[in-house]
Specification:
The complex is a heterotrimer of chains A (about 600), B (about 375) and C (about 350).
Chain A: H1 11-38, H2 52-59, H3 61-94, H4 97-108, H5 115-126, H6 131-138, H7 152-175, H8 181-188, H9 193-222, H10 225-230, H11 238-248, H12 252-277, H13 284-290, H14 295-327, H15 340-363, H16 381-387, H17 390-423, H18 429-441, H19 444-457, H20 464-488, H21 493-500, H22 505-516, H23 518-533, H24 537-542, H25 550-557, H26 564-598
Chain B: E1 19-30, E2 33-44, E3 48-52, H1 59-67, E4 74-79, E5 82-83, E6 94-97, H2 109-119, H3 124-137, H4 153-165, E7 171-175, H5 183-200, E8 203-208, H6 211-217, E9 220-225, E10 228-233, H7 235-240, H8 245-250, E11 255-265, E12 268-272, E13 278-281, E14 294-299, E15 305-308, E16 317-326, E17 330-337, E18 342-348, E19 361-365, E20 372-375
Parallel strand pairs in B: 3-8, 3-9, 6-7, 7-8
Antiparallel strand pairs in B: 1-2, 1-4, 4-5, 9-10, 11-12, 11-14, 12-13, 14-20, 15-19, 16-17, 16-19, 17-18
Chain C: H1 2-8, H2 12-25, E1 39-43, H3 47-65, E2 68-72, H4 79-88, E3 95-100, H5 101-109, E4 113-114, H6 121-125, E5 131-132, E6 135-148, H7 160-163, E7 172-175, H8 178-188, H9 196-199, H10 203-217, E8 220-224, H11 227-236, E9 244-245, H12 246-254, E10 259-276, H13 282-292, H14 295-303, H15 320-323, H16 330-334, E11 337-338, H17 341-360
Parallel strand pairs in C: 1-2, 1-3, 7-8, 10-11
Antiparallel strand pairs in C: 3-10, 4-10, 5-6, 6-9, 6-10
Helix pairs in contact in C: 3-14, 8-10, 11-12
The chains are: A mainly alpha (about 600), B alpha+beta (about 375), C alpha/beta (about 350).
Amino acid sequence: MTIAVPVRRNRLSGGVVLIAPAIVFLAIFFAYPVLSMLSISIVDRAGNFTLQFYESVYASRVIGQVLVNTFQIAASATLLTVVCAYPVAYYLAAGPQTLRSLLLVIVLVPFWTSVLVRAFAWMLILGRNGVVNSGLQWAGVIAAPLDLLYSFFSTMVGMVHALMPIAILTMVSAMQNIDRNLDSAASTLGARRGNVFWRIYFPLSFPGVASGTMITFIASLGIFVQPALLGGPREMMVGQLIIEQIDQMNNWGLAAAIAVSMLLVSVVVIVLFERILGIGRFDGIGQSRATAGTGRRSTLRASTGRAISAGLGWATDVLLGAGRFLFRRKAADPRSGPGTSTKIATFAIVFFLVAPALFLIPASFTATRFLEWPPQGFSLQWYEAYLSSPVWQQATIRSIVIGFTTACISVLFGVPAAFALTRFQFRLKGMALPYIMLPIIAPNIIVALSMFYFFADIGLVGTSLGLIIGHSVLAIPYVVVTMLATLQNYDQRLDEAAWTLGARRLSAFRLVTLPLIKVGFITSFVFAFVRSFDELTVALFISSGLSTTLPKQMWSEAYLNVGPTLAAVSTILIIFVALIIVAIEAIRNYGMSSLKTKR
Amino acid sequence: MLAVPRTSIDSGPDVHGAAKLRVKALEKHYGSVVALRPTSLNVMQGEFLTLLGPSGSGKTTLLMMIAGLAIPDGGEIWIDGKDSTYAAPYERDVGVVFQNYALFPHLTVYENVAFPLRMRKYAAADIRKKVMRMLDVVGLPHVADRLPRELSGGQQQRVALARCAVYGPSIILMDEPLGALDKKLRDTMQFEIKRMHREIGSTTLYVTHDQGEAMSMSDRICLMNNGGIEQLGRPEDLYFSPRSRFAADFLGGTNFIPCQILGSEGDRLRLKGPLDVVFSARPPLEGALSAGSRADIVVRPQHIRITKVGETPTGSLPAEIVDRVVTGATTEYRARLADGTVLVVMELTDKTNLRVEPGQNVMLGWHLDNGTLLPTEDKR
Amino acid sequence: MDFFRKTQFSRRSIIKSAGAAAVGLSMPAVLRTAHAEEILTIGDGGGDYTTAWTKAYYEPFFKETGVRVIPVERQDSPIAEVRAVVETKAYKWDMCATIGQDAADTLAAEGFLDPLDLSGPDAAQIPDAMKSEHYVATELLAFMLAYRKDKFSEPLTSYADVWNLEKFPGRRGLRKMARDAIMVALVADGVAPGEISTVLADETGWARAFAKLDAVKSDIAVWWSSASQTTNFLRTGELDICPTFNTRAQFVADSGTPVGIVFKGGYYNPFGVIIPKGSPKADLARKFVAFCLNPERQAVACQEFAFGTTHPGALQFIPAERAKILPSYPENLAEMAQLDYRFWGPRQEEANTRFNEWLLQ
């Protein structure tokens, strides 16, 4: 037996090893190109240093006002999204198994229709002669059509609809690991439903809420299609200003200066967020080890949180009690999962999520060349157009392949990074999360242009590899945040137990960690896939002209009119995805039942 | 706090290879917080050693480093004569029973117990045999197909024990394994753990903050405080010869009677106690006390005798009974001296001694051998 | 245009070698030589535009020369993309179509375009205002007034009617773009379309435009940003009055919806072809451009989606009924003015700022 000289290892390097691939990948394919591009904000046309662009940014009332609007709109949309998403996530995590896969399909529906098509669907639903107004008029509720569109309201509808799946899935991932026995425990300790929820379940689900809020907020900062197509003149987002400068004014310096200002403010917001809500903090053991220095602040935060929880708990109980008194209902068993009000809220929100699809599917059978309500005549021509076109089909297959590869790469880089952020301490850790989030905050047009310049240099323009790398850059942040939410509620001691029982790190991950974080893992994979599947701007710049992707093909199709072909394509995708999910569920259920009978 | 930090107290024989587990000058800090000052410790083959101490005393940190779940900032860990300081957890032949059991929620009881055997690539038949035998030992063969969340706390605890013992690790580490159980279950499980320890003969390192648990189970107790070892020895040594005020107080609670050294008198020291009463006492185990220095006489409550005023030998203190509580088998008195010092006195509950009533003036005394002298420490 | 390259990628060589491995994994940059037949890639408008051009030019060109023209999606506004392509020499297309003359002028001024060969007889026929050394228009679009005929007893006749709420109640929308909103306002205030740049020469003209806009601001139901929206507005009746591009309005009218189109007071902007500077197939592209300028082919390309023709001889190949609705029909063209992009180019920035400020108030 040889005695090995022990090499001194420590936790520091463990964390760095896990997060380094993601950091380096983003450094090469995101930070370097984008910083190079943004550096033109301090260079004038003659190549000299200048601050003129920043001076124009700060001197401009419009840019300042739009920045404020952007943050206001994003904050409102985030608040609404998170509040609406919570009951659905709760229902998905704690509700009956049977409905779960169906609900999941529905929650994901908005993902499979392009942003453009969704926005147009809302235009037609909320329009003067749209579904809502004609329905209400027919029912005699209103005499004249309501002005639902081109307002703050319709902007919120469009944005909340786009953001909701992200928020729901991030929260579900975190809620998966909450021990339902704790609810029972609390109820035996004398807590009624309201108190059980607000004092026990809600605080435990808070990491998910925090992660969901942050990712929603960041994603909403970059949204501009919905405000532009559904909003009024005041719903103007920074993204639009930047595009205007690049596309119309050929003033990249000013565009870069606006983008830099926006990025800086966003980073500050993320850091504040992290401080206040504690995203990426240590779980279980780590916390007790690490809080020594920040004791007072975290105690203050905890006690404030507890006070709020307690207040909400009593308030809910009073309301529920009043409700029972009014409707003469028996008190529900606190262990029975989501109550009636949660169910109603869930189904209302799910209906909201699925509404554009409910509209698109019949609209795709129209005999006219327009998306309209009610659809005129019946025809399968738009399906024929899709099914008989090799261009459409190749674009679909290419998008699926690229999306799948993107998802694999993003998970490969993103999951270890999330582990590093939740489990390890290392230098500059506080900066790591904002850094990883940057690709979502950075305006798409800037990212796409920067990548084009860089990829042209290294010969990646026009290649599938280039597009996959580009999409992975945009998808990694989603993977990291989803996994963060999942891992916060994951008991690290289970891994430690596996190690002490003889499992090597990889087998422990495969046999213990992975099965327990499955939902979060799959969710982050789906996010990454969808991010690529629905991505247009980078695809327009980076991908080869000869091999189009689905969003590019849809974009092209919408040249004169967002027409029924797009609705048909969306319908096909929705059905396709629904079938896959249902099939997976069926196989799993079959597998489970056969496993049970064997025993 | 003493001026010089106690770096190590190593009472085990320091012969290379004789100890199952040797810990040398191991240390750990988290940022600026010292979790464990350089600490050395030997555990013998088959020994049941308990790390006892309040929370934050460094006992769990020490255990986690021995398990390989925390990486030391300095020092060495030798297991079976092999340097394992930086070995991965799965490379050490240790088993850990976690405070919250850490049963895998997605695996059945059977699969949980089979897990370490599968990791060691045992044959399927072998696994079945060993797992079922182990489940028999812990009395749970009927729950093999259940998931951990379907079990009671005590059952989960026993599954955790079974999972740890099934592959016969050379050292078993237990981190407050009974902390989450109720009193009665705890007593049963203490017994079970001792029984398993005897049956398997494994070397066991047990962490607890419960002194009763430590006293009743351990071959030796390692008392920890403030990230270091306070005292290491057999339970009765710790009880009768505490080396510090902390050790005296943590194990069983005690009275500290302040006094001043007057001089020596044969093998005893003469001292002046409260109310200028003169005592004699054995000198402390370590460190000389010179005349004029301050010290405490440590007397356990059950060693103090209550006598009537007048019928007292020399070296007794006059006091007033201020409180009396009958706790069951024993009765506790609180007695206040004229200078305000309150002493706790414990007697077996006996109808004949219930004559002592609160408000009554009495004399307090004890056998000189039951009084231990400790140099006065600065207040922590 | 060296400033960008200098400041940005001075470490190009290092990156190149670092990227060599990645290149090995990737497919060839653009599949040019994969096939025996020659290929010309063209960034065009996509969708229905591609359909029209395929019928009119791409297929005939293949039949005649054996060169396959491959249409490729590109960004809506070409300026950034062409600049990026030229600066990086990553020619993902050899030439572009559907480029507004205003955008082409900006690109040419920055030196991002290669010259065309306009020596042919057809090129000579194109009006001077619609071509330059680097640009030639293949069609034109009009921005004009459209409205729903079924909502009003009397037809609308000019932009002034947008302001006339008493006579023409109903929902109206305007384009969320400084230039177009200002032009509509001034024409509504009585300025002839050709006089707009003159009126805007000093501050009084600008103040006049914004004062006119003030008068209608609260009555504008929609400030639209994407022209695709207007097709829906007119079709579904979301708006009753909506200045937009003639192609969009005509598309709705062609499908049977009663949409009225008023060219009077509008402007037209030529759209055409460019070759990015350094394009490896510039010569082939020039050949193709000459091919496209044929009036008979232009007639095929333009009539279906109501693009205006630029070759004076093209109209005669279009049925008279259809020709009347095209913006290039002489009577229609006479009622409008060409977009004065030379005036607007340098003023766009300020106009936008001022307009956005006004909108946000």
